[in-house]
Amino acid sequence: MLSIQNYLRAESLDQAYQLNQNRRSHVLGGMLWLRQSDITVGTAIDLCDLGLDTIEETPEEYRIGATVPLRRLEHHPGIAALTGGAVEAALKDIVGVQFRNMATVGGSIWGRFGFSDVLTVLLAADCAVELYKGGRIPLETFAAMPYDRDILTHVVVKKTPGPMAYTAVRIARTDFPVLTCAASCLQGEYKVVIGARPGKAVVVRDERGLLKNGLTPESTKAFADYAAETVPTGSNSRGSAEYRTHLVRVLTQRMLCRLADKEG
Question: Which of 5, 63, 135, 219 is at a distance of 20 to 30 A from 240, taking alpha carbons?
Answer without folding.
Answer: 219
